[in-house]
């Protein structure tokens, strides 16, 4: 569980099923075996119709379901280099969260490794997704998926929210220490779109205190899923009778993978869920 929390905090930082779109015919001939060292990259690989080429991933790569059938070669940070070598990959994709020493060793073994930065906004994510598509020979499919997603988060849907009252939101990513979502997190990008105010947005780091939360008195508290710890934190916050979020029972547990490390498509799912939490009175529906 500690490793999972570390993953969420550092990444702040994706397609629940393979796309039915037609693939590009130019998949690199030497690209037959791929290893992914991040859940978001694993989901994106499936979204690009390249799941059949995926031979290994991390213990946290659970979406789509088929990803669970791949060999686990890493945790949130650590990589089993022997397992990687045995799988004979043509390409390993990673993020800065992956142990840099393991990446260095893999490269010394003449295995190609591409490290993708952790995006914190929708626009950054689409650029990264396009780069992944290009490397996998699926640029056309990647462009189609991006254009479809951009249309859904476009002006027509955003304008429907422009006159709503903006609630103050606190997003808790970790418990010990208390850790909040700041401006460099995906959750902050989602809150901004959903017309909310992230009370921790301007903090230089995510370390927070309960006293700071109580003084800012948010309307809504969102806790990323942390197993029993998440449920304990929810109960703790509901116990503060002076807190607006507790008075209105607006303390919710949200899916950490969905909100902290979404894919181009699951970003839309996270957005729909967040808007329902922030503005339940709207009965807001996404226009296709």
UniProtKB/TrEMBL annotation:
Gene Ontology terms describing biological process: cellular response to iron ion
SUPFAM superfamilies: Helical backbone' metal receptor
Signal sequence extent: 1-17
Annotated Fe/B12 periplasmic-binding domain residues: 33-282
Keyword Iron-sulfur attached: no
UniProtKB keywords: Signal
Cited InterPro entries: ABC_Transporter_SBP, ABC_transptr_periplasmic_BD, Vit_B12_bind_prot
PANTHER family: MOLYBDATE-BINDING PROTEIN MOLA, VITAMIN B12-BINDING PROTEIN
Protein name: Iron complex transport system substrate-binding protein
Species annotation: Candidatus Magnetoglobus multicellularis str. Araruama
